[in-house]
Specification:
Blueprint (H helix, E strand, L loop, with lengths): L1 H19 L6 E5 L3 H10 L3 E2 L12 E7 L2 E7 L13 H15 L3 E10 L10 E9 L9 H6 L2 E2 L4 H7 L2 E7 L7 H9 L4 E3 L2 H10 L4 E10 L6 H27 L8
Parallel strand pairs: 1-4, 1-5, 5-10, 6-8, 8-9
Antiparallel strand pairs: 2-3, 3-4, 5-9, 6-7, 6-10
Helix pairs in contact: 2-8, 3-7
């Protein structure tokens, strides 16, 4: 199954590369699940909340925007759930926001930035920041030929060899699911995905971006060690502030590198 999934991912990426080889980068859209994760970058880049939102009035989505160097920077967060007042995390809000952002903002590049759990067995540590090499789902188990590959949905991320080399960034595979904890079934799927980090949005963002052939980079900061000896939720809350600060530093370097370049330069 993995080999066929890799073949599908490679074909999709080759198709995308044919579309974007020499395209200049001007408009970047960041998809960030929690505003807390985005706040340091919003403040650093002096982005302003858009009062005339391009999104439907019924949704709580928030757009922060501004110019940084020669780049039109947009950060989109799904906002708060209308019933419970908590951040609208997980794959459904991420998919909707990504779709709407592509339609409204026409980005040259999408960056999905945020926190993730890491696996010490794969070398991950708290506050590590990873560029994702490929993403897949671990909780869409469909034991039917071909549909099993669709469920996993493995996709290679847009290649950024020059960026990775210049900034000396860690690289790892991402596995995405709608639960913060890890069931035995999820663990088996995550192992099959050969994941170094796991989150609740990344593969969904990659799925939608792939439909519209928008190059996408996924950047994840490790808040908790999934295969460690502490509760995930406890570690996540304890390390959230430190990891978002580290993400801010790393993402700023990424933006500085991107400025003035074409997609093929990455």
């Amino acid at each position: 199954m993995a080999a066929n999934g890799e073949d599908f991912s490679n074909a999709s990426m080759e198709n995308l590369m044919g579309h974007v080889e020499k395209r200049s980068i001007f408009t970047i859209v960041f998809i960030v699940a929690m505003q807390k994760e985005a706040q340091p970058l919003i403040e650093r880049l002096r982005l302003v909340k858009e009062v005339n939102s391009p999104f439907p009035k019924e949704v709580a989505w928030i757009l922060f925007k501004g110019m940084y160097k020669d780049l039109n920077i947009n950060i989109v967060c799904p906002g708060k759930d209308s019933a419970l007042g908590v951040d609208s995390v997980c794959t459904v809000p991420a998919s909707l926001v990504t779709y709407a952002s592509i339609q409204a903002l026409q980005p040259d590049l999408i960056i999905n930035a945020g926190t993730a759990g890491g696996f010490k067995a794969k070398g991950a540590r708290i506050c590590d920041v990873y560029i994702v090499s490929s993403s897949a789902f671990h909780d869409r188990r469909i034991p039917v030929p071909v549909l099993d590959l669709y469920g996993v949905g493995m996709r290679k991320a847009f290649p950024t060899p020059n960026l990775i080399k210049e900034l000396n960034l860690k690289v790892g595979r991402l596995s995405t699911g709608d639960s913060m904890d890890m069931s035995p079934h999820d663990k088996e799927s995550i192992t099959a995905n050969d994941a170094t980090v796991k989150d609740m949005e990344g593969a969904a963002v990659a799925y939608v971006a792939d439909i519209f052939k928008v190059p996408t980079i996924l950047i994840k900061g490790v808040t908790d060690i999934v295969d460690g000896n502490r509760p995930t939720s406890e570690e996540f809350l304890e390390n959230l502030a430190a990891v978002t600060a580290q993400l801010d530093e790393s993402i700023t370097k990424v933006i500085d590198f991107i400025s003035g370049k074409c997609l093929s330069d990455l």
